[in-house]
Amino acid sequence: xxxxxxxxxxxxxxxxxxxxxxxxxxxxxxxxxxxxxxxxxxxxxxxxxxxxxxxxxxxxxxxxxxxxxxxxxxxxxxxxxxxxxxxxxxxxxxxxxxxxxxxxxxxxxxxxxxxxxxxxxxxxxxxxxxxxxxxxxxxxxxxxxxxxxxxxxxxxxxxxxxxxxxxx
Length: 168
Hints:
Elements: H1 13-20, E1 25-29, H2 32-35, H3 37-45, E2 54-61, E3 68-74, H4 81-88, E4 93-95, H5 101-104, H6 114-120, E5 125-128, E6 136-143, E7 146-151, H7 152-158, E8 162-164
Parallel strand pairs: 3-5, 5-8
Antiparallel strand pairs: 1-7, 2-3, 2-4, 6-7
């Protein structure tokens, strides 16, 4: 007799980390890179405020190949690199090279997540202070199109994050 195949989606490493730390989350699938604004409409239909969906930006400070940091902010907001550099006492910060992200964080563009990065590297992780208005936020689950929605404070505490101003 043949065994039944289960149509269960395999958990990502990030979801396993959340499970190990007893942090509840919900899985979501959003195709922001492919669908753009229509993905935001889909999120709103599911009762999710688009400003609470975060992107994870990897920055390089002072052109030092060992000085990286991570900033998480709403998909709808922009980042002010000069402001971030001033706040963190860096001469300058630049976007990390997208072509080299896999070597820097272990993720390709679109998969970066504060959860995985915090467990794979010692990069400091910062969150846009504006997300403090939300009880829950969504971040990448370490796979393109896959997100987890969880308690904001639990996420910040898990990754030892700090809040900063990322734009004026």
